[in-house]
Amino acid sequence: MADYEIIAVRVGTGNGRTHHIAAVKVGESLFLADQIVDWINAGTHRFWVWFQNEEVDVVAREQGASRRYYLTITSGGFPPIALLSLPRF
Question: Where is 56: in which H helix or E strand?
Fold first, then answer.
């Protein structure tokens, strides 16, 4: 398993109450969020973000009603906004 830092996000259309991360930037490469979710769920790769001088793990969680997976961070006392605070591309 390799570890990768997510350095930027692309936000897609949301429903007005939530944000939807459509893609992420890892180094110079761009990946759809669904690909990152698949790698996380399969245990193929680990992804993290740098937030408030700490490495914070990115995880895939299932949204209740839609059963669609989305990217967020492990709690660890950090707000979920940490992933959305990354630069946009």
Answer: strand 54-62
What H or E segment, with its residue span, contains residue 4?
A: strand 2-5
Q: Which of 40, 6, 37, 9 is nearest to 22 (CA)?
A: 9
Three-state SS for 84? helix
- Separation between Cα atoms, residue 76 and residue 73, nearest integer Å: 9
Residue 59's CB is within 10 A of a number of other CB atoms, namely 19
pLDDT tens digits, residue range 8-40? 999 987 666 667 899 999 999 999 999 999 999
Q: Are 61 and 70 in contact (CB under 8 A)?
A: yes
Q: What is the pTM of this model?
A: 0.89
Q: How many domains does the chain have?
A: 1
Q: What is the CA radius of gyration of the chain?
A: 12
In a domain, 89, yes or no: no
Residue-range definition of the domain harbouring residue 16: 2-84
